[in-house]
Write a structure and sequence with these properties.
The complex is a heterodimer of chains A (349) and B (244). Chain A is built from 17 helices and 2 strands. Chain A is mainly alpha-helical. Helix content of chain B is 36%, strand content 25%. In chain B, helix 5 packs across helix 6. The chains are: A mainly alpha (349), B alpha/beta (244).
């Protein structure tokens, strides 16, 4: 057990590095790319949705914006997408900071709705700004110069590299003063503000950072598929997938989003192959998520951590502390609607 | 003595209710000032106005001679004005030590990116926890603490921001007599170390013993003020409390 704890990271990394050489069929490269792409984007979303507690349903807007920026830059200016994506994602992050500055005046369900509205606006703009986006038919990019059977491997390693960067940023934020402030905002925003945390600044920065890797993912994806259209680039399902993965693995944990992506992406493919239709895939994933929410509301990793902790030793120091903790858990139903009402309560009291 | 905090004709209305009306309150440097009044007299609203939770409809608020009327709460905290809540508010999922580290007076961009706890901050936090007797619980999540311990933690945590003035909303509310004595002792000790207090409290025994100056609110305005002994026998105050 101790050995596993010590070595699992290098082992996992070596496995991931070796994977495309072991499973050489193009499908496995596609699957690997998708898993890593979503692991990176879910990690990024988690910085806002998990650490800070502001759950954006509109992160696909940054995904699509990243995709279009990279595609347009490749077509018009001849920029290599893999080089330009990390830089163009900075622009998207700045856009997110600007929009976040407006949207983050709301909280709870109002914030969620405003992010959906943002996504729909982006999609409308992409559909109608025909000069740049070519409208509904979409935009094509030149294919990568590598030979076709080899072509997915560079993407795989490229996104693996950026997943590691995203994980590092996520880890770094979590252990920084900034991250402590974000978690404080999630726990009690009014109180955080009252003890000197500049909550607006923290939230807006977190929103920008969480948009960055999603935009980068969109940019790489646009080169990978070589053809993008508004319907797929600004698809709400992409954002929903990030959220489901994070919630499955463990909201607000470092490895939760990665674990979620490693489970849900292959599971989605499996269901797709077994049952064929796309809508069935959504229904089954939805049912699965409901089971998770009922039996493991905090996600896999926190639940496992709790088991281990409970098995080690009962560590209750005080009489009554347990029942108080339970009361607290009950009073925090964790739904968006209740979050909203509790927020109002604290604001008005 | 000089004036540390004062409100100048502050008013705030919620719909049809005039919660605070033309309220002039001042707190002297180094004092323990009590703020009392019947339920609904606007004590907590006044607290919220001073700490920036609400913006007053009219009037200005000055702290250390500087206007703080429209500042956001975090900026007011940075100025050195901290508060506790009537119903204890902590970061429930965080550990006791983390709860201590969050409150900060001023943070530069560099330290924002630094580790979440610096050695000297931990030392300082542990010193304060020692004072309230919570050192052994430093790694427990705040939600597992007993009610009294949570109150002490909230109090200790705001001291991390090194406040010039502390506003306490019912520090003795719902805690046992031993704990009340402990909290009173703590307030007096801190006061001797130079912290000014403004205390809302319903327990008259506590207020009379603790405060050197008292302000009575009724229906959103100041009804009377003066030393406890004088307030105690003020007919208008008795009237407001007992009704006629």
């Amino acid at each position: 057990m101790e050995l596993l704890r010590r070595w699992w990271k290098p082992i996992a990394l070596l496995t991931l590095l070796a994977y495309p050489w072991i499973y050489r069929a193009p499908y496995y490269h596609l699957l690997g790319f998708n898993v890593l792409l979503f692991a990176m984007m879910a990690t990024s979303w988690n910085i806002m949705g998990g650490y800070t507690g502001y759950k954006s349903l509109g992160h696909s807007a940054f995904y699509g914006l990243g995709a279009y920026l990279v595609a347009v830059a490749a077509n018009e200016l001849g920029w290599n997408p893999l080089v330009s994506a990390p830089f163009l994602a900075v622009i998207v992050a700045l856009v997110a900071v600007l929009l976040g500055w407006i949207m983050l005046r709301t909280s709870g369900s109002a914030f969620v709705i405003s992010t959906i509205a943002m996504l729909l606006i982006f999609r409308l703009v992409a559909l109608n700004l025909r000069e740049i986006t070519k409208g509904a038919p979409g935009l094509s990019q030149p294919l990568p110069p590598w030979s076709p059977e080899f072509s997915r491997m560079p993407f795989y390693y490229y996104i693996l590299f950026w997943l590691l960067i995203a994980l590092f940023i996520s880890w770094y934020i979590r252990r920084s003063r900034f991250g402590l402030g974000l978690v404080a905002i999630r726990d009690d925003e009014g109180k955080a503000e009252m003890v000197g945390v500049n909550t607006t600044l923290y939230k807006v920065l977190a929103f920008g950072i969480s948009a960055y890797f999603v935009a980068l993912g969109g940019g790489v994806w646009s080169y990978f598929t070589s053809h993008i259209s508004p319907v797929f680039a600004f698809d709400i399902i992409v954002g929903v997938d990030m959220i489901l993965m994070t919630m499955l693995g463990g909201l607000g944990t470092l490895w939760g989003p990665v674990l979620g992506a490693f489970i849900l992406v292959p599971a989605g493919d499996f269901i797709l192959f077994t049952f064929g239709s796309n809508t069935i895939y959504l229904a089954i994933i939805g049912g699965l998520m409901m089971l998770v929410i009922i039996f493991m509301p905090r996600g896999i990793l926190p639940t496992i951590a709790e088991w281990i902790e409970n098995r080690r030793a009962p560590r209750i120091a005080h009489e009554g502390a347990h029942s108080m903790a339970e009361m607290y858990d009950q009073s925090k139903g964790k739904t968006v609607a209740e979050d909203e009402s509790s927020h109002e309560r604290t604001a008005s009291h | 003595m000089s004036e540390l905090l004062h409100t100048d004709r502050v008013s705030r209305r919620f719909g049809g209710i005039q919660a605070v009306k033309d309220c002039n309150v001042s707190v002297q440097t180094g004092s323990i000032t009590g703020l009392i009044g019947p339920n609904g007299s606007g004590k907590t609203t006044l607290f919220n106005l001073i700490t920036g939770v609400y913006i007053p409809d009219e009037g200005e608020i000055f702290f250390e001679g500087k206007k703080i009327t429209n500042l956001p709460p975090s900026k007011i905290c940075h100025q050195g004005l901290s508060r506790t809540f009537q119903i204890t508010r902590l970061f429930w999922e965080m550990t006791v030590l983390e709860n201590m580290i969050v409150p900060i007076r001023q943070v530069g961009f560099r330290s924002l990116l630094g580790p979440n706890m610096f050695r000297y901050e931990i030392d300082r936090a542990m010193g304060l926890l020692e004072r309230v007797g919570l050192t052994h619980l430093k790694d427990e999540p705040a939600r597992k603490l007993s009610f009294g311990q949570q109150k002490l933690l909230e109090f200790a945590a705001i001291l991390m921001a090194d406040p010039i003035m502390v506003m306490l909303d019912e520090p003795a509310g719902g805690v046992n007599p031993t704990m009340i004595r402990f909290i009173m002792k703590l307030i007096q000790d801190l006061n001797r170390e130079g912290v000014t207090f403004l205390v809302v409290e319903h327990n008259m025994g506590v207020v009379m013993e603790l405060c050197d100056h008292m302000i009575v609110l009724d229906q959103g305005t100041k009804l009377a003020e003066g030393p406890p002994a004088v307030i105690q026998i003020n007919p208008a105050v008795l009237d407001a409390y007992l009704g006629t």
